[in-house]
Amino acid sequence: MRTSLGEGKVLLFLQRRRRLLLALLIFAAGFALRAYQFGRLPGGLNQDEASVGYDAWAILHTGIDRNGVRLPVHLIAWGSGQNALYAYLSMPFIALMGLNVYSVRMVNFLMGLLAIPLVFRILDRTAGRRPAFIGMALMAAVPWGIMASRWGLESNLFPTLFLLTFAVLLRGVDRPRLLPVFAALAALNLYAYGAAYLFIPVFCLAALVYIRRSAGTAWRYILISGGIFIAVALPVLLFVLTNLFHWGHISILGFTAPELPGVTRISTATASHSLLDSLGSFYKSVILQTDSTVENCVEGYGVLFPISLPFTFAGCAALFRMRRRDGRLFRLLSAWVFSGLLLFLFYAWTNVNRVNILYPALLMLTALGIDWLCGSRRRLGAVGACYLLLSAGFTSAYFGGYRQQADPAFFSTLGDAITLADERAADGQTVSVTPHINHPYIYALFYLKIPPDLYWKTCVIPDPDVQFQQVESFGRFVFNTDGLEEGRPGIYVLWNEEAAAYRKAGRLLGVFAYFSVLEIE
Prior knowledge:
Elements: H1 2-35, H2 47-62, E1 74-75, E2 82-83, H3 85-97, H4 101-126, H5 129-141, H6 143-149, H7 157-174, H8 179-188, H9 196-214, H10 219-245, E3 250-252, E4 255-257, H11 265-269, H12 275-287, H13 308-321, H14 327-346, H15 358-373, H16 377-398, H17 402-409, H18 414-424, E5 431-433, H19 440-448, H20 452-458, E6 473-474, E7 477-478, H21 482-486, E8 490-495, H22 496-500, E9 507-511, E10 515-520
Parallel strand pairs: 5-7, 5-8
Antiparallel strand pairs: 1-2, 3-4, 6-7, 8-10, 9-10
Helix pairs in contact: 1-4, 1-5, 2-3, 2-4, 2-19, 3-4, 4-5, 4-6, 4-7, 5-15, 7-8, 8-10, 9-14, 12-14, 13-15, 18-19
């Protein structure tokens, strides 16, 4: 009997070691796919990355953003607003590393890594070890998870933050003392992305019904959690109200809920549309898994790989079959999917960013579907081999030909050109930057680290009431190239194709991969 018991302990120990090794291997693969050439692919910066990064740097060092607002709970950015949580989370990295592409992308990089064990934890506690490993492997390897981790779009923070919120809620069903933590995290999601304004209240209402009726949670925990949710959400609620009723900037505990000068993104995103439009958006975002943008998709590989769709639908059936064995996952994951699908009715049109909260839920359903349909190891191995081939193909495409598409879209080498132009400009000399860039002024602010007060005191914005303000000039920078036609003296930052037509008119100071610096004397 002692020998049998000892052998059982050894077997259990070896099983745990194998599981730990497998988890570490999956995580290492996910880490490698996110870390390799991090900061260099995509090369350059998207305008939203530069915007949130510069405002984070400005608030960190001066307490105000580029629009002169002190500690905003929502950034004014282009005039129509930008979510602020990413900026505040980026500040420690900017303080340690300086303002650069690495510090601006670090939050999404780390959150993308965190999503891998979170998916495992959620499925392991509710569905079992095998679907947990399947979900973990998917999260490590799917195109959406990799691409969202490699650039600093602030809305890409939302899915992982909610994964953490969801994991705490699952734990809170058994340990009600954790429900206030869930409430605080749920409210914090409101600062991550505007889609949370609809998603979080709907999901929390469904969660409230479940934890009260099915889990029998005491009212005192629910009331305490509700109070914490309201307290954390109050600043963003004031932000929404002041932009609905035009109350002006509202100060609260040293922070500012700003009234936006331009047309808000929410009002344009939710413009009048039909049910047919919503169905079309669903078809494109979920069935076709694409939004045809360079930032979010590599052609042919989708968001979660096209092969996943049948397994996702099978996962819905598998989830329904689990309702009696574990009501937590069935009811709460169903609430997640339902709340996410409402966004298609809410938005006039969608892209991958706008409905990104739906993809972790679909990924977990896919894991459940694979586990259910692949009962034998042979079937699971065959499906795994298909995913491995797709992952290899995506990796080859992403780290290969994708760069030729991504670098121009992220304005690679623009920072080098702007920095050289600023260094070579004499006192009083104008630096003109091509307008054929999305908001070129933000790149001058970012790469040159212009103090925010110097910017907002000197900037010229012809039409401040539009959704995306166009800055005509600030300081010695002008964001048009009208002077080229007149042969006006100055320094010009141009796309290489533009510069080729004016090389005889001036002197080239520098030529980079995509941009040139030209001086006309």
